[in-house]
Amino acid sequence: MQGKQTHQQELFSTIDVESFVPKGHLLRKVDKLLDLDFLYDLTEELYCLDNGRAFIDPVLFFRMQLISYLFGVESDRQLCRDIHLNLAYRWFCRLPLYQSVPHHSSLTRIRDRMGEFRYRQIFKLILLQWQKQGRFAGKQIVADATLVKANASMNSLLKREDTDPNARVLKQYEKRYHAFSIENANAG
C-alpha cells in the first residue's frame, strides 16, 4: 500500500541541534579543545559599548573562521551559506536555528578592523592553548599540497635508450649483492 506524506507547518518545535552532529565529527573534537573566552579581553577595544550597531560576538567570528580553515571554505559568502545550511556548523558556532548567520560583509569588516597582526596573534594563542593541553608537540610539520600543471602528454614521451645495456642489470646485481653482504655480516 502506498503512503502519502502530508506537510503541516509546526507552530512550535523543540529541536536539539546537537543530536544531529555525529559523535565522531571533527567539530565535536575541536569544540572539546576550544576555549575562546580570552577573545573578549583581546578584542574589547575594537568595539564601542555605548553606540553603533549590535556587534557580532568575537567568539562566533573565530568559530566561523575555524570552520573556514578546517573545511577549506575560501569565501566569506560561501562560508555564511554553508553555516546556514549545515547543522554541524551551526552547532559549532552556537547558532540556534531561529538566529540568522552574520552577513558576509560583516566578516570582512571585522577582519579589517582587527588587522592582520591581531588576527594572527589570536590564532597563535589558540594553537598555544592546544599545545599546552598536549594535543600536539609544536614541532614543525610541512606538507606540500601544491597543484602543479604540466604541459605533458603520455603520447609525447620518448623512450630513453641505454648507452650500456648491461649497466642497469649490473646496478641491480650490485644492490642485491650489497644487501646480501650486509645480512651475512650481521648474522656472523
Structure write-up:
The protein has 188 residues and is mainly alpha-helical. The chain has a domain at 17-132. 52% of the residues lie in helices and 0% in strands. The protein has seven helices and no strands. It has helices spanning 26-33, 38-43, 58-71, 76-85, 87-93, 104-132, 165-187. Helix 4 (76-85) crosses helix 5 and helix 4 packs across helix 6. The longest helix is centred in the middle third of the chain and has 29 residues, at 104-132. It is elongated and about 85 Å long. The termini are far apart. The model has no long low-confidence stretch (mean pLDDT 82).
What is the topological layout?
Layout: H1 26-33, H2 38-43, H3 58-71, H4 76-85, H5 87-93, H6 104-132, H7 165-187
Helix pairs in contact: 4-5, 4-6
What is the C-alpha radius of gyration, as a whole number of Å? 28 Å
Instruction: Please give the number of β-strands.
Output: 0
Strand count, sense and barrel status of the largest sheet are: none
Number of helices: 7
Mean pLDDT: 82
**By helix and strand content, what is the structural category?**
mainly alpha
Percentage of residues in helical conformation: 40-55%
Strand content: under 5%
Shape: elongated
Pattern of helices and strands: HHHHHHH
Q: What is the distance, rounded to the nearest whole angstrom, between the alpha carbons of the first and last residues? A: 80 Å
Q: List low-pLDDT spans.
A: none
Properties at a glance:
mainly alpha; 7 helices; 52% helix; single chain; elongated; 0% strand
